[in-house]
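[INFO] parsing input record for Imelysin-like domain-containing protein
[DEBUG] input buffer:
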Amino acid sequence: MKKVNLIVFIAFIAAFFSCESESNVSVDFSQDEMLTNYANNLIVPSFESYKNATNALKEKTAVFTATPSEETLNSLKEALKDSYNAWSKVNAYQFGPAMEASLLSNSNTFPTKYLEVESSIVSNNWNLGSITSNNKKGLPAVDYLIFNQDAAETVTAFADDNRKRYLTECVADLDNRASSVYELWVNGYAAEFSANTGNDPSSALSFLVNEYNKAYERCKNQRVGYPLAKFSSDLTPQVSPKSVEAYYSQETLALLVSNIESLENIFLGKGETDGEGLADYLDAYYKSGASEKDLTAEILNQFDMIKAKLDACNDPFSEHISNNDQVVNDLYDELTKLVVLIKSDMSSVLSVKITYQDSDGD
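[DEBUG] output buffer:
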């Protein structure tokens, strides 16, 4: 009986201190409310929008492949742009159902291996379900297939049944995965996520903070750093303009802006309405005295600096990369400055361990 009482006492003490910061200063904040806001106000609506966009893309693909024309091609192109934009809103939620579906690697691995795409079409031999096909399908492959030539040449190319099938299968794969992830969120995972409080590696907060940081670093590294050869070990690094996202449609800058705006809104907890977010959580720590600096203000200020550098960029963004000009290098520098604020400082204040590693540095 004494042993049972001791266990109950220890559990009580653990629960009591879980409501306090590591500095033993009480922080008045509801994780439940924040997580519910993320699930219901940001994540589920974002996955619904992405699912709707890929479904429209599937419908436009069916129309285009049945009757290839410049008119049906233009409708398809707009549907792809909508899907890309909707993707930027779910980019930071690659945990839970999205992780189980390998949504990121199957939907937006870029740059696409266009030579292998063409080889597959010519040989009538491909398997989009294979892990080796991740860089030959998804949004980047569709971007290549419908934007790499002028409209008349593209319409002519799609007289080929193999090309029609390849495009159709790419889009069907995108739509199936988008629908599957959305259904899992609305049929149980949203409630599970909202109830998963705490800050251990299996908590919803840990999932959110880690995937948020990964998504941000994909903006910094994959969308800007890699094309600029920032991580090259060559003595004379060569920039790679074709490595940017959405190279063929030249939507690179618009998507980068959309990703950054989405990440800022996620930080704020701002979706269809403005609710509790990571910014409010950090504010609670600052106002209680548990955190010495106003980290929310610093992070938002750095987002403003990044957006100012984005405003200085022009389409096509790939030309900035080709020229390796000061504008895009300044952008990269400002992107880099935010990493320490959200990856080191924010995670430290919230007592969340960063559970992934990257080899690119900060």
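[INFO] Residues 31-66 form the longest helix (36 residues).
[INFO] shutting down worker
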